[in-house]
UniProtKB/TrEMBL annotation:
Coiled coil: none annotated. This is Metallo-beta-lactamase domain-containing protein. SUPFAM superfamilies: Metallo-hydrolase/oxidoreductase. Keywords: Signal. Residues 1-22 form the signal peptide. It comes from Pseudoalteromonas gelatinilytica.
Length: 295
């Protein structure tokens, strides 16, 4: 019986060990989206990268462990050096760990506002070597990435990146497909989100979309996302103009046409709160003499 117990314990140990070994790599995933453009996933976070011959252009490091894994993956599978690393914006849940992703000759790129924040906030990551204000084209062999700044949306200096000629668009946080925007929209400028998303849709059509979270998709999916934030903003704004407080808005606003989105039940009240707070803190609705309400 003692021997049988030893065998059972040993088998259980092997099972637990194998589960742990399998669990760690499962947190990371690399998918080919189109041509030489790939999506890297670290749990609920995503970045994009492009390979041209033996060179790589990568985007957000996400964190130190994810950056180490991605660099090792690129070296092992593509035998490529990291030529460029591009930050989407300055928020630390996407920008940490840059020192673990770059090589000795990597050029680090960010919008000037993102670069300022990374430096002023002493974020433990690689600081940008190259900054820009409106647009920047970063070439890699016969491919390139077009970066564009549309103004405030989520975080400072948050830009879109279009990978060409694959025509894959990468946007972090201010466009989210297949899922509700994050909780109470911390760090978001709702008017800026609307403006930036409309501006992207006014650009030439893109073949595929990669977001910093949630699903990949196409232009139609981005249009659906825009409709959601437009309807959310309209419902909260119009309710506030009628003098309704936050609790009433959360009780009355349902937007059932978007119930298919992930986290709809859990995050809709928080999304409502996020727009409400935006309209108070940025829109100064609490100072409007035409509204008979206490915010």
């Amino acid at each position: 019986m003692f021997k049988s117990l030893q065998i059972l314990l040993f088998s259980a140990l092997i099972f637990v060990t194998n589960q742990a070994i399998c669990a760690e790599p499962a947190n990371y995933k690399v998918e080919n989206i189109k041509d030489n453009v790939y999506r890297f996933s670290a749990g609920h976070y995503h970045s994009a990268f492009m390979i041209v011959d033996n060179l790589a252009l990568v985007t957000d490091p996400i964190n130190s462990d994810a950056a180490k894994y991605l660099k090792s993956y690129i070296k092992k599978n593509f035998n490529a050096d990291i030529k460029y690393m591009l930050y989407s914006h300055s928020h630390v849940d996407h920008a940490m760990g840059g020192n673990e992703l770059i090589d000795n000759n990597t050029t680090v790129v960010a919008h000037q506002f993102a670069a300022e924040d990374l430096k002023l906030n002493k974020v433990p990551t690689a600081l940008p070597d190259l900054t820009f204000t409106d647009t920047l084209k970063v070439g890699l062999g016969d491919s390139y990435v077009q970066l564009k700044y549309y103004g405030p949306n989520n975080g400072r200096g948050n830009v879109s990146m279009r990978f060409m000629p694959a025509n894959v668009l990468y946007v972090v946080d201010w466009i989210v497909l297949g899922r509700m925007p994050y909780k109470d929209l911390i760090g978001y400028d709702i008017n800026g989100m609307l403006h930036s998303t409309k501006a992207v849709l006014n650009e030439p059509a893109f073949a595929a979309f990669i977001g910093g979270h949630a699903d990949t998709g196409n232009r139609d999916d981005v249009v659906s996302y825009l409709h959601y934030i437009q309807d959310l903003h309209t419902a909260v704004r119009d309710g506030m103009l009628k003098g309704k407080n936050l609790a009433t808005l959360q009780k009355e606003i349902s937007l059932p046409q978007y119930s298919h989105l992930k986290m709809y039940q859990q995050w809709l009240p928080l999304n409502i709160e996020g727009v409400y707070n935006n309209l108070v803190e940025i829109g100064y609705f609490n100072f409007r003499s035409d509204i008979n309400a206490q915010f």
